[in-house]
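Quick one, probably user error.
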């Protein structure tokens, strides 16, 4: 009996330790009722980036918005950021016994979402926005793993070595490049990144840039909605939308059940730039 009591106490302590650890990995804001939809932010962004979408979707769904450690002023983890985010979100779904789960992720959030979707029976649908199975391939279609590793290392060094004022300016310019005609939100994006732990966001960016998920795609058996922007292809390269769809289909060619939706008018943050279109497409996808 004494041994059983000791064993039970140990289990309680271990369970408490896991819960405490996961509490440090992220915070979650839950609103609405219905089938659960989990929102994962882009690198350096607060979960508040999803506020507009959640306002609409929480009318019919239970929305779980994740705020990741080290992003937008939250206390950072020590190491293994991507792995901890991924495993802790997985454990959250299992522990909360969430069913009929849809995951929505932008760019880095989608990068995590693709990895979650490869785990059988964990989630039912996935929506990714401005996400690519091998991010480095977007810069160079024929890039090698060695080249991707080098590029990722250079980007990480650039993030880490930039002085604070220069970094915020760089993030503001990046925000303007990712958001159409909205300098207010570009500044918000810059502020979130400036408030983030620099090591965290530099490391996860390098993780994403150097990780090739293409071999993982055939393992994803659930429906996946892939949002992409063709704003730059149309305005800078004068390429047609049909060419954009052909390019995106190549990125996801081995993903069994996927749908690509492109916009010519929105940039990367398409849920801000074309919010009505985004919500309409998401709603239709969830009703299938």
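Nope, works fine. Designed sequence:
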């Amino acid at each position: 009996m004494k041994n059983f009591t000791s064993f039970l106490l140990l289990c309680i302590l271990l369970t408490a330790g896991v819960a405490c650890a996961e509490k440090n990995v992220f915070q979650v804001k839950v609103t609405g009722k219905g089938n659960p939809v989990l929102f994962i932010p882009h690198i350096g962004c607060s979960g508040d980036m999803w506020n507009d979408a959640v306002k609409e979707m929480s009318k019919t769904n239970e929305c779980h918005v994740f705020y990741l450690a080290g992003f937008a002023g939250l206390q950072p983890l020590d190491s293994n950021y991507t792995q901890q985010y991924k495993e802790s979100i997985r454990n959250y779904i299992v522990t909360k016994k969430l069913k009929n789960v849809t995951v929505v992720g932008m760019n880095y959030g989608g990068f995590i979402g693709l990895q979650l979707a490869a785990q059988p029976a964990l989630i039912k649908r996935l929506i990714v926005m401005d996400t690519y199975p091998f991010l480095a391939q977007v810069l160079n279609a024929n890039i090698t793993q060695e080249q991707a590793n080098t590029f990722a290392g250079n980007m990480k060094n650039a993030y880490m070595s930039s002085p604070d004022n220069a970094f915020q300016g760089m993030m503001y310019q990046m925000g303007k490049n990712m958001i159409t005609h909205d300098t207010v939100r570009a500044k918000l994006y810059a502020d979130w990144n400036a408030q983030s732990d620099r090591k965290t966001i530099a490391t996860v960016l390098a993780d994403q840039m150097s990780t090739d998920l293409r071999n993982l795609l055939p393992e994803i058996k659930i429906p996946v909605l892939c949002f992409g922007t063709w704003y730059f292809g149309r305005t800078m390269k004068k390429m047609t939308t049909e060419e954009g769809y052909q390019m995106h289909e190549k990125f996801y060619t081995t993903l069994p059940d996927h749908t690509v939706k492109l916009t010519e008018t929105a940039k990367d943050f398409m849920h801000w730039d074309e919010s009505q279109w985004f919500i309409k497409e998401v709603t239709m996808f969830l009703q299938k």
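The beta strands are 26-31, 36-40, 62-68, 102-106, 125-129, 224-229, 258-263.
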